[in-house]
Amino acid sequence: MRLFCFENRPRIVSCASVGGGLEQQGPLSSFFDLTENDTKFGLDTWEKAERRMNELCVSLVMQKAKILPEEIDLAFAGDLMNQCTASSFAFRGRDLPYCGLYGACSTFAESLGLAALAVDSGKARRALSLASSHFCTAERQYRYPLEYGNQRTPTSQTTVTGAGCVILGQDPSPVGILEFMPGRIVDLSAKDMNNMGAAMAPAALDTLLRYQKETQTDFSGFDGIFTGDLGAEGLKMLRVLSDREGLSLPSSLNDCGILIYDRVRQDVHAGGSGAGCSASVFCGYLYSKLLDGEWNDILLIGTGALMSPTTALQKESIPAVAHLVRIRRC
Amino acid sequence: MRLFCFENRPRIVSCASVGGGLEQQGPLSSFFDLTENDTKFGLDTWEKAERRMNELCVSLVMQKAKILPEEIDLAFAGDLMNQCTASSFAFRGRDLPYCGLYGACSTFAESLGLAALAVDSGKARRALSLASSHFCTAERQYRYPLEYGNQRTPTSQTTVTGAGCVILGQDPSPVGILEFMPGRIVDLSAKDMNNMGAAMAPAALDTLLRYQKETQTDFSGFDGIFTGDLGAEGLKMLRVLSDREGLSLPSSLNDCGILIYDRVRQDVHAGGSGAGCSASVFCGYLYSKLLDGEWNDILLIGTGALMSPTTALQKESIPAVAHLVRIRRC
Question: How many CB pairs under 8 A join A and B?
Fold first, then answer.
């Protein structure tokens, strides 16, 4: 029972996504509800900007569904900032019960799976799921002050400035959450903080293999399998690793970090990353394809690299996790 | 439906707790499964020591119940370290699906509530709940390097070196989880990082008032109501605030941060705090009182101060949350 099947099919009532300037210039620009060129969102720090992005995203998702806070029984949220303050601060004064999560870039899939569990069980009438990241808050926290202008390696990913928010409920709606398979912590001793795709690919493989074993699927029936966010390096590695295991992954396999930017035109190295990447790509692009009926059945595999700057300085390897969520038209 | 009632009464199959030297000298010493005087647990950093404490705690809880990892379908865990690395690193290579949480000192109550939801829903056969903190990792992350020897104010609390772990399941066992009420984010503009009790007391009050409204209880039927961790300052403040709201709290109201130390004999200022405080006090002292039948019905109210050193430097106030879990003999 490590694959949670939701018989009551918690439905996606509403999705909203907010992005920054680089995301506005990317190929998925038109799928965002709102993008903002000013990295500070008109405020005086990037930390406040990320929080503001979350506040906007939560307000938008409720407006779009015409749902009031008191009609939502639980919110799951997380981000990359130490102590997840972009999330907790965004919920100050809101009439919304709050459970904070930390799963690095896997946070969105984790929050979606847990929100689905809460709604499917009948305990929550509706549940909200939110994840965010901001290039400037992440860069200075995990790497260097931005003013330092450090060079990035080709394998490094670019933290997405973005947030995505979903409301799940039993309301009539064509798209629902069918399954959730939480990931195990996998660590194959990758240590390069500038190649997180390499650390996360084995975790994605572990979850895909477990899912295959449980469901006997050959993955060909899905309209898309989206990791988030392995980037170009990690996705390549996932293909190599899965070939080695005899697992055949279809050509519809793609990555949210690759989709969100144009890697030829935009200087993003191996692609996007960050808790806000798969969150905003799902809430914009992926959800709209499902809503339009262009796709019927997809897998989102949220991958997170669970190191910290402290563990990196202490020369530790990078543990990773990958949570799988199956989203389908009902 | 903001109070989750668990009709299937997820049972506590097993509890384990590990503590440090100060906890060994405290009044609850005999309730720990294991205590260790060496702050580094024989390793070379405090960060590794906290992880080791978690590894020991998870191993102990499974040994005590004679349960193998493959019999547990989901683990919820969190700690105070940036990116919650004491938790994620402790699960490397374990066959245990993992969801990371961040709720500061409220993490244990959050994890217990979510684990109960997973088991009650029938999705997970068993779920594990873990939280930890370590005085030395927290002190140098949130405040100053320990070598600096800074003076602490009388209202400040002492981060507990401890971990607590629970396995919930449908196995026959006398103690179960009856209710879970996730808290809302409350921020009354307290800004003093050395008086977190003041920031958290209004969140505890908010949850108690919501619980009273929902259940019409007068709280006198409980054998104990335990906040975790308001400390002496915060508990005093909770009493003042509740009097003002006309909410009468019984004399059985106490705080895990007060219980764990002897504030006369031990130099701990306002008492204990940290995600490992309520976790280890629950898994040791509180659970044993329930198991022995001395108590029948208690409330645990995990309170978390959700600021970060960055938000404090940016002169932000401290948002707080309080999650309520009702634990009863069945």
Answer: 182
ipTM of the complex: 0.98
- Strand A297-305, strand B126-133: pairing: unpaired
Give me the residue from B93, B121, B186 closest to A121, CB to CB: B121
What is the amino acid identity at position A199? A
Q: Does residue B133 contact residue B276 with C-beta atoms inside 8 Å?
A: yes
Cα first-last separation, chain B:
23
Say yes or no to pLDDT of A117 above 90. yes
Pairing type for strands A162-169 and A11-19 reads antiparallel
**Residue A178 to residues A8, A197, B136, Cα–Cα distance (Å):** 8, 27, 44
Q: Which among A95, A120, A141 has the least Cβ separation from residue B184?
A: A95
Q: Which residues contact A155 (CB under 8 A, 6 or more apart)?
A: A192, A194, A195, A197, A198, A231, A233, A269, A270
Which tokens is A293 given? 């009926």
pLDDT given at position A44: 97
Give the residues across from A226 on adjacent strands.
A254, A300
Separation CA A262–CA A49 (nearest Å): 24
* CB within 8 Å: A84 and B102: yes
Shortest distance, CA B116 to any CA of chain A (angstroms): 11
Task: Report the relative pairing of strands A34-35 and A11-19 from DSSP bridges.
Answer: parallel
B72's tokens:
């547990």
**Residue A66: is its pLDDT beyond 90?**
yes
Provide the whole-model pTM.
0.98
- Any B CB within 8 A of A40 CB: no
Q: Closest Cα of chain A to B20: distance in Å? A: 22
Looking at residue A1, its pLDDT comes to: 78
CB distance from B118 to chain A under 8 Å?
Answer: yes
- For the stretch B20-55, pLDDT in tens is 999 999 999 999 999 999 999 999 999 999 999 999
pLDDT in tens, B90-126: 999 999 999 999 999 999 999 999 999 999 999 999 9
On whether the CB atoms of residues A257 and A228 are closer than 8 A, the answer is yes
State residue B1's pLDDT score.
78
Q: Does A170 touch chain B (CB under 8 A)?
A: no
Q: Decide if A101 contacts A78 (C-beta within 8 A).
A: yes
Neighboring chain B residues of A45 at a CB cutoff of 8 Å: 314
Q: Are A259 and A230 in contact (CB under 8 A)?
A: no
Averaged pLDDT score across all residues of chain B: 97
As a dihedral over the C-alpha atoms of residue A299, residue A305, residue A306, residue A308, rounded to 10 degrees, the angle is -150
Kindly list the distances between the CA atom of residue A188 and the CA atoms of A203, A319, B321, in Å, as whole numbers in the listed order: 9, 8, 36
Tell me, yes or no, if A274 comes closer than 8 A to chain B by beta carbon: no
Give the amino acid at A67: I
* Cβ pair B83:A100 closer than 8 A: no
Tens of pLDDT, residue by residue over A271-328, are 999 999 999 999 999 999 999 999 999 999 999 999 999 999 999 999 999 999 999 9
Which residues from B are below 8 Å from A1, CB to CB?
A: 73, 123-125
